[in-house]
Amino acid sequence: MRSSAPLEAVQGEGRSLGRRCGFLRLGGCNLSCRWCDTPYTWDWQGISDSGISYDPKVELHRRSVSSVAEELTGLGVDLVVISGGEPLSQQARLLPLIDTLLEAGTEVEFETNGTRVPDSRLVRPGVRFNVSPKLSHSGDPAERRIVPQALSRFAATPGTTFKFVCRTTADLDEVSALASDFGIDSVWIMPEGQNPDDIDKHMQELVSSVIDRGWNVTTRLHTLVWGHKRGV
Ligand code: SF4
């Protein structure tokens, strides 16, 4: 698999926010969101807002599943978060890793952009999907960021939550339309922001409307605490 080194961390977003975990970041993404906070996993041409082009030879390393499994189980955590990039682009390669983690009693959460139909062998007890479909402000064309077959499958998968990056209440209307179209009933709203000031600004703008709509909110703990620092 193509990934950075596994590390010990806390889940920074969503329903397990603050939970100690092992964190595995896989390389490559099929989208190119302009505000992406991990462009070093896929942006080899400098097309995101950062304007920086990263070198895949520096950022990514081919690792055997067995060595990654050994490193993650060695952390002694009961939760592993697998993120990216888009981790489900490598989902077939991940099956032996998931087997090993579950056998060790470790839960797994995938952070996915919701454009890949999950392999049925991944849909099993102990594995959860945190699906983050991208809205129009991401800059990705609708036909790339909204894949009906995948969203419908995730919406029908028990334990799945949907997390939407939002800036304005107009974004919430877009979320409402997607929730209605695909039968999404577990909605978390996360304010967009690459720094604490922007996260706070967007949270203040959104939180009342989110509560009024019967949804949940999450912050971005890692950005509030560590900013842009990588590897924490
Ligand atoms: S889907 Fe996620 S990793 Fe991919 S470009 Fe968008 S924000 Fe970045």
Automatic annotation (TrEMBL):
Alphabetical list of PROSITE patterns matching this protein: RADICAL_SAM (PS51918)
Q: Its pathway?
A: Purine metabolism; 7-cyano-7-deazaguanine biosynthesis
Q: Which reaction does it catalyse?
A: 6-carboxy-5,6,7,8-tetrahydropterin + H(+) = 7-carboxy-7-carbaguanine + NH4(+)
Q: Which cofactor does it need?
A: S-adenosyl-L-methionine; Mg(2+); [4Fe-4S] cluster
Residues reported in the UniProt entry to bind substrate:
V10, Q11, G12, R25, S83
Q: Which residues form the Radical SAM core domain?
A: 16-228
The broad enzyme category this protein falls into is lyase
Cytoplasm as UniProt keyword: no
Tell me the InterPro entries matching this sequence.
7-CO-7-deazaguanine_synth-like, Aldolase_TIM, rSAM, rSAM_sf
Q: Would the keyword Lyase be found if you checked this record's keyword annotation?
A: yes
Binding of [4Fe-4S] cluster occurs at C29, C33, C36
Q: What is its EC number?
A: 4.3.99.3
Question: What residues does S-adenosyl-L-methionine bind to?
Answer: W35, C36, D37, G85, S132, P133, K134
Q: Per its database record, what is this protein's job?
A: Catalyzes the complex heterocyclic radical-mediated conversion of 6-carboxy-5,6,7,8-tetrahydropterin (CPH4) to 7-carboxy-7-deazaguanine (CDG), a step common to the biosynthetic pathways of all 7-deazapurine-containing compounds.
By sequence similarity, the record places it as follows: Belongs to the radical SAM superfamily. 7-carboxy-7-deazaguanine synthase family.
Query: What is the protein name stated in its UniProt record?
Result: 7-carboxy-7-deazaguanine synthase
Biological source species: Streptomyces kunmingensis
Upper taxonomic classification of the species?
A: Bacteria, Bacillati, Actinomycetota, Actinomycetes, Kitasatosporales
Encoding gene per record: queE
